[in-house]
Amino acid sequence: MKTRNLGNLAILLLTVALIGCDKSQVENDKAMASNVVPVKITPVTLGDIDRRLDFVGTLEPWQKAALGSQIPGKVEKIFVEEGDRVDKGDVLVQMSDEQLVQAQANLASLEKDWQRMKCLLEKGTVTQQAFDQIDAAYTAAKAGYEMVLSSTRIDAPFSGIITAKYMEEGEIFSLMPGPAGSPAILEIMDLDNMKITIAVPEKDLPVFSPGLKVIISVDAYPGEEFHAEVNRIAPTVNPRTRMGGIELKMRNYRGKLKPGMFARVSVIIKARRGVLIVPTKCILEENGGTYVFLAESGKAQSKPVKIGLQNAKITEIIDGIELGDSIISTGQRVVKPGDSIRIVESTLIPGGAE
């Protein structure tokens, strides 16, 4: 009986010991799991990279004009409406010819006087001075008539779009400043071509030359790129801002672009094709060197790297890691060399080769 009790006690003690071991193992497993860092990785890939200079500006029409008459008068007829497309030389406005009739009558009268004085001068009955006076008046009358004649109609100075109509038929045109800031009946713009003027720091001006291609983006069309080229470089630099003006010209394909739109301008100053790239956020710095963390056999391993071109999104790797290496792209600022890691997601670099 006593022997049986001792046996039961031994079994009980062994059971308690085993339970204690299991509990200790669970706690150890939990402790180890709590030290595992969740990370995201990105494979090192081949891709293209460039370095850019970025500027901002506002889209403007390539040409713009406020159209009015050289003399005041009644607006007889307007042949266009706002939004109409016109060609260079098209008649847009017909003014009243009342002043033209007066100018024509004045010219005819002075022409008769001029002919009479010329005959008298040839006969020697009038002085040269007297003839010169009537000759000057006659010349002025001809110029006045030509001006009034040209002012009776307003033609399109270039091909474009009528963007504003300030007056209606029957109204009196005045030479006083109007809605356009100057006397105007219509406003016309060339919207087939646009321009952007950007301010460039003096240190970056050597990058620019006439004909240089640049990339344009606007908020209205996210992800879409337009192209322009340098048309003119200002000959001077603002001594206060140390900026120089650069005028860009671009075609307005399909009429998408509108005057007044905010534009971002990018100039590619250096580019590399088919090189090793990683997300720029993966590049870490310490003691003047650069390094990344790789995911290898469930551990985080620090790797020194030599970098090349770099922009806000991606960085070229010249040496240190290889194509296909798994680089830690989220959690890289948390892990330490040798830390256990758990990969929760693998992502590719947008635009990079798989």
TrEMBL record:
PROSITE patterns: PROKAR_LIPOPROTEIN. Residues 276-342 form the YknX-like C-terminal permuted SH3-like domain. GO terms for molecular function: efflux transmembrane transporter activity. Residues 196-267 form the CusB-like beta-barrel domain. Residues 64-172 form the Multidrug resistance protein MdtA-like barrel-sandwich hybrid domain. Pfam families: Beta-barrel_RND_2, BSH_RND, YknX_C. It comes from the Bacteria. Gene3D superfamilies: 2.40.30.170, 2.40.420.20, 2.40.50.100, Helix hairpin bin. InterPro entries: Beta-barrel_RND_2, MdtA-like_BSH, RND_pump_MFP, YknX-like_C. GO terms for cellular component: efflux pump complex. PANTHER family: MULTIDRUG RESISTANCE PROTEIN MDTA. Belongs to the membrane fusion protein (MFP) (TC 8.A.1) family. This is Uncharacterized protein. It comes from candidate division Kazan bacterium.
